[in-house]
């Protein structure tokens, strides 16, 4: 398989390519720490086109590119600072940008936009979040984190908690985790924010066990991974609707007492109120380590994609 665009985690049909990405990420980390990273991507340009806000995703992609000796062109508010404001279509913008870039990293508010961009681009496109659709590189770093923290990717009980309707990291993650054996999901969401049907169908097709639960307290002692997400404010029609749901789940000191001693707490970040700061000191809190892993995963992905090697 040639890894060209990364649009959806559905592209990964088995775990062998994932394993290659993870082992390359390990190598990137050890070389980075030893200060022995070669300039693998010298003379290569990554263009980051972000129509939605981002901290971790854009900065870690940019840092990854610089660390490998590459160059970066970036626009963080593409809707305002690119020709989009003059009415240029996404496809026209991507056609033009792909003439200047070796790889494009795109974040856009519309589900399906990354695929549309990939169809007209002359260079690889990486989906860095397409509205309520997917966020495949986040899922890769999430799974890499689980493997690093727990030493396995099989035989896991995983609670996905929060805005399962709009949370794109959830969508990409559950597809990818479905490739591993003996996975059980607890889908923990208020009724209004339950996982969309298409993803439940996917789980059924893959014969993955899942349970829909409303009360997070019920699963705390059962899980190996507690994956928290924020309620996605920007996807709501009214502030009132958001306010009603935003504090449905809060993991605090009391919840930590009930949580399985060997579990890890993950979060794609940014967190708002769903994990209180006092939780950060607990060694089960893996979310900052998770964010750091994003750098190594993105280094591995950029190298693999720009090299265009068969994997
Ligand atoms: C996530 C996103 O943008 O989907 N953030 C990220 O990339 N780490 C999660 C979120 O915004 O809630």
Summarize the structure.
This protein has helices spanning 16-33, 56-67, 78-81, 90-97, 113-120, 136-150, 168-177, 197-205, 239-245, 253-258, 287-307; strands spanning 45-50, 71-75, 103-108, 125-130, 156-161, 183-188, 209-213, 225-228, 264-266. The mean pLDDT is 95.
General description of the model:
The chain has 311 residues and is of the alpha/beta class. The chain has two domains: 9-134 and 294-308, Rossmann fold (3-Layer(aba) Sandwich), CATH 3.40.50.1370; 136-290, Aspartate/ornithine carbamoyltransferase (Rossmann fold). It has helices at residues 16-33, 56-67, 78-81, 90-97, 113-120, 136-150, 168-177, 197-205, 239-245, 253-258, 287-307, and strands at 45-50, 71-75, 103-108, 125-130, 156-161, 183-188, 209-213, 225-228, 264-266. The strands form two sheets. Strands 7-6-5-8-9 form a five-stranded parallel β-sheet, covered by helices on one side. A four-stranded parallel β-sheet has the order 2-1-3-4, with helices on both faces. Strand 1, helix 2 (56-67) and strand 2 (71-75) form a beta-alpha-beta unit. Helix 1 crosses helix 11 and helix 2 (56-67) crosses helix 11 (287-307). The longest helix has 21 residues, at 287-307. The mean pLDDT is 95. It binds N-carbamoyl-L-aspartate. N-carbamoyl-L-aspartate binds next to helix 2 and helix 7.
């Amino acid at each position: 398989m040639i890894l060209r665009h990364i649009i959806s985690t559905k592209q990964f049909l088995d775990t062998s390519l994932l394993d290659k990405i993870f082992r390359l990420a390990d190598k990137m980390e050890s070389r980075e720490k030893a200060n022995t990273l070669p300039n693998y991507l010298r003379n290569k340009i990554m263009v980051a086109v972000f129509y939605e806000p981002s901290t971790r995703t854009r900065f870690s992609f940019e840092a990854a590119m610089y660390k490998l000796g590459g160059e970066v062109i970036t626009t963080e508010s593409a809707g305002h600072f690119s020709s989009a404001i003059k009415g240029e279509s996404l496809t026209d913008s991507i056609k033009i940008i792909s003439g200047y870039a070796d790889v494009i990293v795109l974040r856009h508010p519309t589900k399906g936009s990354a695929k549309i961009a990939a169809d007209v681009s002359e260079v690889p496109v990486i989906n860095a979040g397409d509205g309520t659709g997917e966020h495949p590189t986040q899922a890769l770093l999430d799974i890499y984190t689980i493997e690093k923290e727990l030493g396995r990717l099989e035989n896991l009980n995983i609670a996905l908690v929060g805005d399962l309707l709009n949370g794109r990291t959830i969508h990409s993650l559950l597809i990818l985790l479905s490739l591993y054996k003996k996975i059980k999901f607890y889908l923990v969401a208020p009724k209004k924010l339950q996982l969309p049907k298409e993803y439940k169908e996917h789980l059924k097709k893959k014969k993955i066990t899942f349970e829909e639960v409303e009360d997070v307290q019920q699963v705390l002692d059962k899980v190996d991974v507690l994956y928290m997400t924020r309620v996605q404010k920007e996807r709501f029609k009214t502030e009132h609707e958001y306010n009603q749901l935003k504090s449905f789940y809060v993991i605090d000191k009391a919840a930590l007492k009930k949580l399985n001693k060997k579990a890890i707490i993950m979060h794609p970040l940014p967190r708002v109120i769903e994990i209180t700061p006092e939780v950060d000191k607990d060694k089960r809190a893996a979310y900052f380590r998770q964010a750091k892993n994003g750098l190594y995963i993105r280094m591995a992905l950029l190298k693999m994609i720009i090299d265009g090697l068969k994997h």
